[in-house]
Amino acid sequence: MLLQQLALVDHSKSLHAADLAQAVAALQKQATRDLGPIWGIKATVDAFPDIKNVPVGYWPIIITEKIDDPTAAGYHADKHHQPYAFVQLEKGWQLTCSHEMCEMLVDPFGNRLIASNSIKSGQGRVKYLVEVCDPCENASHGYSVNGVLLSDFYTPHYFDPVASPATRYSFTGALKKPREIKKGGYLSWYDPQTKKWWQATYFGSAPSIGELKGMKDNDSSLRSQVDRLTKYPGKAKAMMSAFNGNAKNRKTNFESNKAEGSHWEDVMKKHLTKKK
Ligand SMILES: [Zn+2]
Question: What global pTM score does this model have?
Answer without folding.
Answer: 0.91
